[in-house]
Amino acid sequence: MKDQAEALRKRLQIKSNRQNSKSIAVVSGKGGVGKSNFSLNFAISLSKRGHKVLLFDMDIGMGNIDILLGNQAKCSISDFFDGKETLSNLISEGPEQLHYIAGGSGLERLITIDDDTFSSFSDELSSIMDNYQYIIFDMGAGVTKESLSFILSVDEIIVVTTPEPTSITDAYSMMKHIHIQNQDIPFLIVVNRVLDDRDGINTYKRLKEVSKRFLGRDLNALGVIPDDRSILKAVTSQTPFILKDVRSDASKAIIRITERYETQLLKEMPATNAFHFVTKLKRFLFER
Ligand SMILES: Nc1ncnc2c1ncn2[C@@H]1O[C@H](COP(=O)(O)OP(=O)(O)O)[C@@H](O)[C@H]1O
Ligand SMILES: [Mg+2]
Asked: What distance in angstroms lies between residue 287's CA and the mean position of ligand 2's atoms?
């Protein structure tokens, strides 16, 4: 125990010289709205612009980042909990220097693991996270107890919705669920599969209005992505759409979103460090 504390202190000392990392959760109320495609292509786009990015597939049991990349992962988070692998061995290299941790069953075990295993999980996670500027968690649809702990620990939450009323309603319920627990983490909205810009703006406005009225809370627009058949083709060929055809409308939208994120939103939202993320995670998992 003493050794662990010592090791942690040492790491914290080194940390002060390092770049702060930012953790982002990508969520939605409804499934199938395009979270994984958004997360992956946004992550690649940030990576292409010279940032160090780790994409963490958190869709327990339904993870598919490795499928979208056409690269079946050899091991999953379960191997970590079984003591077969270290967390850093789970990191795979994707295109454009993107690093990712593939999904798989196992994360639900976080709430039942013993203190020692959690301690090594959190120590390793915070030191891994410190190597990256962005850690993006592609979450499953809706919330579970474990996923809520992760969501409440991040710096920013990207909510993906489509213009469909059911998707908007579910996105709102999701935000409400999070808002009850935390009123400060910014919500950035992505409207996916829009018919045109107006469709996107109207969807955003509807969400903004209900949020303002019922939660008393403002939202940030991150951008819109058109409904684009090139995504279906990219998914079928297991190549991220931004790499398959950088000139497609969907790719242009991702590039616009990345630019907006970097130039405007980043200035407004301060980064924190990985240690904070892990401290919060621990609190949410064990102290409620
Ligand atoms: N902008 C879009 N235009 C057309 N089809 C899309 C778009 N976004 C997503 N899709 C389709 O929706 C499917 C589900 O997307 P996915 O990213 O796996 O959703 P989620 O992670 O939210 O479940 C994709 O396989 C793709 O066929
Ligand atoms: Mg998904």
From this structure: 29
Q: Is 234 in the pocket of ligand 1 (CB under 6 A)?
A: no
Q: Where are the alpha helices (DSSP H) in the chain?
A: 2-15, 35-48, 65-68, 77-81, 115-129, 145-153, 165-181, 197-210, 229-236, 241-244, 249-260, 266-268, 274-286
For residue 7, the CA-to-ligand 2 centroid distance in Å is 36
Label the pairing between strands 99-101 and 91-93: antiparallel
Q: Is 161 in the pocket of ligand 1 (CB under 6 A)?
A: no
Record the pTM: 0.90
| Tens digit of each residue's pLDDT (9 = 90 or more) over 209-264 | 999 999 999 999 999 999 999 999 999 999 999 999 999 999 999 999 999 999 87
Percent of the residues in the chain that have a pLDDT greater than 90, as a whole number: 59
Q: Which of 59, 231, 241 to mutate to test the pocket of ligand 1 (most atoms within 8 A of CB)?
A: 231
Amino acid (one-letter) located at 264: Q
Question: 12-26, pLDDT tens digit by residue?
Answer: 444 443 457 899 999
CB atoms within 10 A of CB 272: 15
What is the 142 CA–ligand 2 centroid distance (Å)? 11
Q: What is the C-alpha end-to-end distance of the chain, expressed in Å? A: 23
**Relative to the CA of 68, which ligand 1 atom is closest?**
18
